[in-house]
Amino acid sequence: MELVLKILGRVGLALTVLPSILFLTGTLQLGTVKLVMIIGTVLWLVAAPMVQKLNKEHPAGG
Amino acid sequence: MPDEPTPPQSSGSEFEREPVPQSELKGANKFWGMYAGEHCAGTEFMIGPLFLLNGVSLVNIFLGLLVGNLLAVLSWRFLCAPIATKARLTLYYHLEKIAGDKLVILYNLANGILFCFLAGAMITVSATAVGIPFNIPMPTVDSIYPNSVPFVLIVLAVGAVIAVVAAKGYETVANFANIASPWMILVFAACGIIAFKQLEVSDWGALQDVWTESIAFAQAGKGESTMGFWSVVFFGWFCNAAMHVGMSDLSVFRFAKKESYGWASAAGMYVGHYMAWIAAAFMLAAQIKLTQDANPVPGPMANNVVGLAGIICVILAGWTTANPTIYRAGLAFQAIMPKVSRVKVTLVTGFIATIAGVFPAFAWKLLGFVGLYGTILAPIGAIIFFDWYFHRKGDATNLHNAQPASSFSVPVLLAWVIPVGVALYFIQVKGISAWYFPLPCWIACGLLFLAFTRKSSVTA
Known about the structure:
Distance between the termini of chain A: 12 Å
Largest interface: A-B, 22 and 21 residues
Radius of gyration of chain B: 21 Å
Strand content of chain A: under 5%
Largest sheet of chain B: none
Oligomer: heterodimer
Radius of gyration of chain A: 14 Å
Number of strands of chain A: 0
Number of helices of chain B: 20
Shape of chain A: elongated
Low-confidence stretches of chain A: none
Structural class of chain B: mainly alpha
């Protein structure tokens, strides 16, 4: 579970910044960039607190 | 940005009145992460655009901030961290041993008041984003007073939430701030990249042309610069003067295993005070190009560039930094009124900050306010520095065993208020920019302290 959440969080961070680079290269339209960024934002802001909570409950489990 | 880093959490006691023991020292990664996150805050959305409005050339921004931030990092590394990792005391307890507990209360009062206005600016920043879904007109850069009742209501609502959370659930928000910081850094980067693309430039010359046109538009054709290279250098160096030369971050680096961890401040300076400021400045330039709107209101600016993610970022960036600022201001005031509960003091502090946040002028005047903040608080760091090297000879045991000569050291008070008083005269009456004064005040304060205490017995 924790591994899945960690991966989702990392994907969220990637979706937050990568669209802007693709916009810079002309690959993505701004509307799509905004949509993907909010998806990435939700992923990170949901997954990261859950990972933090799991880490506190099972600190040894990493 | 003038946000104050939170010490890495220890397992139990925060060692407020004892040296941090070896077993509680933290590794370098904690400090790199903490500085990167804590200096990428809501106020960065204001400071970058204010450079443009002040007509700072692009070269001066890139080079001036490069130099200014380097000097700030060197100040943390070679002034603050060496003392912190030897004495291992908080600024407050360290100062108490030199100047007495009553003078520390005076420092707390100045600190608390300045924190209130800083938090007020952060509340304003958050409110500009909260107002977007309600289509509320935002104050313009010329606004000293609030421009509408709905804006006031939003500021009051945002301020109330921040104050209640600061009073009741500080730990929760501190944890959430840690979670949000890597994401916020990436949103800042994305804002800068997208805004750069929107400027439609292909080389440095074209970028400079667009920048110059943006300044001319924002200044209604005047195209004047009120900040040159050295202004930018000194602003970059001293916008966190209270933390490095002012020694407030003794409270942070007392947990560091090695003094070389002072280099970790580079993460905060070059992520928050370089990348984020330049990104925010590009956002305003892009807004001017696309909508002919030169108002540096963070919420709409972020919304134009990255949409809802930007709005959330502005709200969280303001909130997560206003929250600990109000909390710390509350602690500072509570030290003056120890019989009143911390919750009550923090709520009143939050109320004062919220009232300050209603007036957008505090946010628009952030550059000057930050300089003033450093001018008033940083000289106290000189007391610590000169005492450490001239009276204690760098001996931590001497400091730990020391008792102040009195509970209110008049020599320390005079050494502090004389240069600050002179500086305030030049800032308020002569109109000289505040960011020039932390350095002369710091040096003058240290020398006066040595002169006034040459024959007095401040040592144990």
